[in-house]
Amino acid sequence: MEINEIRPGMSCLTREGTAYVLEVDPQRLLVLLQREDETIPVQVRSDEILALID
Asked: How many CA atoms lie within 13 A of 39 on its CB side?
């Protein structure tokens, strides 16, 4: 999977658990996520998500 395959609205797995993708910045390789157990969205590098898939 590549950064262009990560889309807003999809669920993904992070090191901290499942999260909902809010925004994707393909130029800076950043993803804004809303984790299930947190109220504040977090920004992570896309490789953190993609590493768990591969």
From this structure: 0
